[in-house]
């Protein structure tokens, strides 16, 4: 008897049956643009082998004006069809099913040829769109129909029509972006015409035995967005036009409310999908921040949806479904919703991968093969770098001993998990521990490794991490000065007014920790919605309520400082930095750049400005917290070198600058795979 009977039950679509209720949602990985079709095919086939019921590709442009960026992938020629056939054949050979997403970006297309219902520029693009005339609209419909026909020729099991997230079809639906007065604008019946027409004509072109998923915006989270009544009206019309499944879209890309970041509660938007249940006859798929089989099973059991969509969790672990089926859910590598290696890469023009699983999108390059001659390997440091190296090496058959002076594994991840909104790190550390145990890594915790302990191993890996940088500020030895370690790990007493020195990832984390009063909203959907101003689209258009009516006042007054004169938080994650800034602003944190630190005394921190260090003034504070970055801890590596033992140095012990778990894990896995 499985623990996940609902998630693992098949779904009969009439002409075909999905083997379970799990959809791998669309992700733009950048793989298609590499034109390395073996690599693309292996990415999807790996996930098909992992047991997922249905996959959706990254968005494919129906034409050049609708591509998310110039050169975005699409099926434009016979050669493209043949290339995509490599992918679909490999997926089918692995007993998988795959649908191609048709993504017309409309005014979100990053180029001067972009088109839209009205010539209104979006706040997230520099390009004002060209307003389409009747002929232009007909061309867009025709191109989307052609894309679906080509997908069918390429062997896809279906298509997903992207109708949400503020893309082209969504732009026609609401007066926020559609000011037309012809038959494509004005009344809601007119504004709905385009998505309905697209689905109707695609169904006519592809015949009855082809999956059409319509990604429906359940809640727009923008001013003048759709009401729930309008969403239902559209859904019923789309069903009548021939859709097979509804997938959930949450929020336009220009919305100022986080929808998938780690601080969004798990399944935080399932309630809005549930509203549609019973109002249409075809199955409905829930989405956003679903990342464990237990969450998925709970939603299906409670009737929130008929299927669940998970996207990033399939980067973290392609074997998600099989592991759940085999009662090995605790071995599923967790997606911690950090966006650091997936979406942040996409938006920087890099190929996506995963912080937790560096093999994602590198399946053909980064192999973890069993060795014929096992070695004895010592790893010092059970942080993300050391754990990744140890587990990877042990999985290959090596005999691995892992040393750490702490009694628990996880290193700095144990501090991250204390930060409100980073609760996913608890599961991440637990997963590392499980994998170290199951892969047979011998763990010698609670005792520092000495050079003598490390004699006789075939390989020694030093992953001893970092130590805080000394900012050399006069007065920093005072009793009112703490380091981030004192605050996050050792729970030191902190005053009611605080100055935080250093506004990198850790300065932001510490500030969020210090202003939090009571339990984190990331674990309470109702409180989180209140904090971010998410309302009910049955009551308020687009589901926008008053933002910032947070239930709890900040626990402390915090000033967050950096020396650089640039915007504070500018170097945080591309897709998440704005969320951290907005969260701190809601808690009245003052952020200041361009200051020099003169001295600390019992009154607080004295700062000046400019090269001449003028305008010296006091920032009064009961406590000053140092978050001034880190330097490598290489002391053990140096001691080893002195007695002639050469070690591999990885993670923060190698390079501390801009160290994060992504680089540490990548380096650890790659080293473990190479020994
Ligand atoms: P960091 O990102 O390098 O930031 C260090 C901060 O200290 C900067 O604000 C820097 O700004 C300041 N600083 C540098 N040298 C200083 C000095 N001598 N005196 C005073 N201030 C100084 O380092 P971190 O905050 O320790 O974070 C470490 C790594 O963990 C980073 O790579 C970070 O991305 C990662 N991390 C990521 C997250 C996340 O949410 N993704 C969270 C936590 C940590 P100025 O030089 O302008 O003063
Ligand atoms: Fe999830 Fe982070 Fe991996 Fe992206 S990089 S898939 S958000 S764990």
Give the key terms.
675 residues; alpha/beta; TIM Barrel; Rossmann fold; FAD/NAD(P)-binding domain; 3 domains; 5-stranded parallel beta sheet; 27 strands; binds NADP nicotinamide-adenine-dinucleotide phosphate; binds iron/sulfur cluster
Descriptive overview:
The protein has 675 residues and is an alpha/beta fold. The protein folds into three domains: 11-336, Aldolase class I (TIM Barrel); 376-468 and 631-674, 3-Layer(aba) Sandwich (Rossmann fold), CATH 3.40.50; 481-517 and 553-628, FAD/NAD(P)-binding domain (3-Layer(bba) Sandwich). The chain is 31% helix and 17% strand. The chain has an eight-stranded parallel β-barrel, surrounded by six helices. A five-stranded parallel β-sheet has the order 15-14-13-16-27, with helices on one face. A five-stranded parallel β-sheet has the order 18-25-19-20-21. Helix 2 packs parallel to helix 3 and helix 13 packs parallel to helix 21 (661-674). The longest helix is centred in the N-terminal third of the chain and has 20 residues, at 134-153. The protein is globular, with a radius of gyration of 26 Å. The site of iron/sulfur cluster has 14 residues, from helix 10.
């Amino acid at each position: 008897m499985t623990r996940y009977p609902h998630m693992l039950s098949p779904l009969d679509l009439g002409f075909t049956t999905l083997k379970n209720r799990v959809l791998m949602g669309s992700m733009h990985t950048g793989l298609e643009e590499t034109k390395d079709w073996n690599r693309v095919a292996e990415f999807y086939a790996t996930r098909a082998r992992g047991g997922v019921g249905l996959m959706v590709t990254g968005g494919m442009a129906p034409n050049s004006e609708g591509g998310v960026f110039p050169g975005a992938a699409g099926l434009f020629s016979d050669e493209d069809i043949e290339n995509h056939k490599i992918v679909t054949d490999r997926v089918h050979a692995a007993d998988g099913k795959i649908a191609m997403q048709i993504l017309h970006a409309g005014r979100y297309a990053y180029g001067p040829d972009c088109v839209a219902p009205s010539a209104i520029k979006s706040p997230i693009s520099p390009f004002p769109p060209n307003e389409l005339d009747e002929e232009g609209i007909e061309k867009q419909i025709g191109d989307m129909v052609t894309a679906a026909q080509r997908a069918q020729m390429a062997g896809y099991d279906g298509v997903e029509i992207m109708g949400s997230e503020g893309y082209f079809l969504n732009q026609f639906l609401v007066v926020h972006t559609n000011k037309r007065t012809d038959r494509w604008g004005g009344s809601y019946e007119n504004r709905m015409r385009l998505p309905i027409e697209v689905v109707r004509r695609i169904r006519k072109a592809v015949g009855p035995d082809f999956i059409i998923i319509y990604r429906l915006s359940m809640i727009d989270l923008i001013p003048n967005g759709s009401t729930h009544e309008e969403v239902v009206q559209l859904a019923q019309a789309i069903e009548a036009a021939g859709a097979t499944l509804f997938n959930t879209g949450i929020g336009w890309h220009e919305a100022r409310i986080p929808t998938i970041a780690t601080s969004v509660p798990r399944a935080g938007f399932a309630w809005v999908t549930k509203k549609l249940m019973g109002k249409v006859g075809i199955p409905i798929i829930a989405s956003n921040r679903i990342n464990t089989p237990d969450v998925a099973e709970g939603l299906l059991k409670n009737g929130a949806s008929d299927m669940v969509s998970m996207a990033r969790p399939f980067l973290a672990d392609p074997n998600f479904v099989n592991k759940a089926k085999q009662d090995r859910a605790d071995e599923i590598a967790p997606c911690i919703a950090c966006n650091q290696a997936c979406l942040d890469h996409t938006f920087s023009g890099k190929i996506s991968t995963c912080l937790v699983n560096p093999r994602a999108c590198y399946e053909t390059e980064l192999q973890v093969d069993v060795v014929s001659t096992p070695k004895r390997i010592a790893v010092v440091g059970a942080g993300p770098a050391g754990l990744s190296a140890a587990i990877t090496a042990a999985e290959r058959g090596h005999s691995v001993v892992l040393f750490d002076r702490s009694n628990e594994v996880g290193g700095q991840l144990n501090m991250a998990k204390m930060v409100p909104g980073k609760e996913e790190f608890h599961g991440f550390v637990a997963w590392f521990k499980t994998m170290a145990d199951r892969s047979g890594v011998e763990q010698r915790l609670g005792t520092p490794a000495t050079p003598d302990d490390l004699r006789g191993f075939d390989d020694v890996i030093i992953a001893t991490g970092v130590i805080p940088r000394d900012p050399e500020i006069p007065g920093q030895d005072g009793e009112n000065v703490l380091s981030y370690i004192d605050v996050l790990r050792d729970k030191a007493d902190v005053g009611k007014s605080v100055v935080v020195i250093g506004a990198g990832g850790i300065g932001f984390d510490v500030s969020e920790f210090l202003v939090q009063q009571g339990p984190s909203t990331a674990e309470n959907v109702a409180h989180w919605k209140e904090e971010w101003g998410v309302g009910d689209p049955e009551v308020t258009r687009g589901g926008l309520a008053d933002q910032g009516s947070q239930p709890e006042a900040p626990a402390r007054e915090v000033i967050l400082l950096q020396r650089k004169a640039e915007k504070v938080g500018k170097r945080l994650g591309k897709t998440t930095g704005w969320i951290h800034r907005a969260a701190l602003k809601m808690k009245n944190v003052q952020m200041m750049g361009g200051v020099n630190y003169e001295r600390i005394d019992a009154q607080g921190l004295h700062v000046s400005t400019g090269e001449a260090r003028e305008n010296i003034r006091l920032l009064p504070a009961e406590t000053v917290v140092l978050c001034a970055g880190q330097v490598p801890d290489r002391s053990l590596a140096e001691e080893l070198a002195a007695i002639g033992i050469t070690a591999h140095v990885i993670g923060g012990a190698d390079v501390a600058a801009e160290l994060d778990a992504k680089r540490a894990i990548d380096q650890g896995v790659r080293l473990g795979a190479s020994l």
